[in-house]
Amino acid sequence: MIPISIPFIAPNQKKYVNDCLDMNWISAFGKYDKKLTKSFSNFVGTNYASTCSNGTVAIHLALLACGVKKDDEVIIPNFNGPYSAFAITYVNANPVIVDVDKNWDINLSNLQKAITSKTKALIVTHLYGVPSNVSKLKDICKENGIFIIEDCAEAHGAKIGNNVVGSIGDIGTFSFYANKIIASGEGGILTTSNEDLYEKIEYFKNQTFNKGPIKTFIHDDPGYNYRMSDIHCAIAYAHLEVIDEILEKREMILQKYKSNLSMYADSFQMKKEKIKTVNWVTTFQLPNSLVHLRNQLEIYLNENGIQSRKFFAPMIDQPFLLDCNGTHSQDLVNSTSIANSGLYLPTYIGITDKEIDFICKKIELFLENKV
Fold first, then answer.
1. Is 358 left (phi over 0), alpha (psi -120 to 50) or beta?
2. What CATH architecture is 243-370?
3. Which residues contact 362 (CB under 8 A, 6 or more apart)?
4. Cβ neighbourhood burial of 119 (10 Å; 0-12, 13-18, 19+)
């Protein structure tokens, strides 16, 4: 079976992990946490970065830092992973689901219609390495006192204009799960240039302990054990050292797929003006005339020893949101159509040209026989 993903081992990864073990510092707030947060904030272009235990936790911490509480409203796109919606339920807020356009962007009109007096935050998700153009939404959010949280779990290093995602909104959240571009097995990080938000993130993730070396064990708010161990920080830091190489190799994988399936080149990752994408996974969005074959294609590839994954199911189809007093603004036609149109293919450093050739030949054979 050709897997959908295999973790990358960075050149210094074992060295840094062994360094943690030699120092006997395997918990949080160690040497590599400091190295990682400093380097990652420089990489993204923010004043601060704070590690945490995973990407979903990062969104939860962002909501806590923004003061989102019970019955507040948080706007999210319908074409989305469920993770931001999970986090919204953790703070007992209500998700407001909006449509996206053909470029996977929330448009200004849809956002305006979704805003109410209860709107506290907007979560913009940069799905599959394709940035959603959050820059166009900043003015209306600022006018209405709405925080912008960028979910960058799948888009390390992507850019909107000259700005790296995670630096454009109020807070950026990233995942370091084993299949991500920077992969420490588990872990995540938040980025911001707002000192107050940064301090709140640090406060909530560390069980709301008071500052300073003398701990009172008096907690003004419920705390969360959302820290990232120094071993995981060491692995992530080793990856960040070679991030340019990682992104380049992933882009080469995408170009190999597109070259092999040149007749379907437009079905692969979209390119948008003044947007730099990154190839977290190689997406394949079937043409409208072939969308009905998507699920059959996934089954066919699996039967031929190739893992693939459907696009995330739309938020409107998520049963767990039925009990969240969530609403949706206008129709959700575009996002539902996009969610049902694509899948993604094996993408990892180390996949061979021969394996990509095999995958592409199977896709071509399947589609030829069905058309």
1. alpha
2. Alpha-Beta Complex (3.90)
3. 300, 301, 304, 306
4. buried
* Strands 159-160 vs 163-164: parallel, antiparallel or unpaired: antiparallel
What CA–CA distance (Å, rounded) separates 177 from 213? 31
Q: Is the pLDDT score of 173 beyond 70?
A: yes
Q: How far apart are CA 95 and CA 249, in angstroms?
A: 37
Decide: helix, strand or coil at residue 105.
coil
Domains 13-241 and 243-370 share a fold: no
Sheet containing strand 342-345, edge to edge, reads 282-285, 342-345, 309-310
Angstrom CA distances, 143 to 93, 137, 146, 147, stand at 21, 10, 8, 11
Which among 152, 364, 131 is positioned nearest to 267, based on CA atoms? Answer: 364
Residue spans of the domains in the chain: they are 13-241, 243-370
Q: Which CATH class is domain 13-241?
A: alpha beta
Per-residue pLDDT reduced to its tens digit, 323-343: 777 677 678 999 999 999 999
Residues 69-75 have a mean pLDDT of: 96
Element (H, E) at 195: helix 195-205
CA distance 4 to 277: 20
Q: What is the maximum alpha-carbon separation in the chain? A: 71
In whole angstroms, give the CA distance from residue 261 to residue 363.
Answer: 9
Rg of the chain (C-alpha set):
21
Distance between CA 84 and CA 182 in Å, rounded? 20
Report CA 9 to chain centroid distance, whole Å. Answer: 21
Lowest mean pLDDT among 68-77, 78-87, 156-165, 211-220: 211-220
**Looking at the chain, how many residues does it have?**
371
Q: Give the pLDDT of residue 371.
A: 62
How many angstroms separate the CA atoms of 53 and 310, rounded? Answer: 26
Residues 6+ apart with CB under 8 A from 111: 75, 98, 122, 137, 140
Position of tokens 């089954």?
A: 299
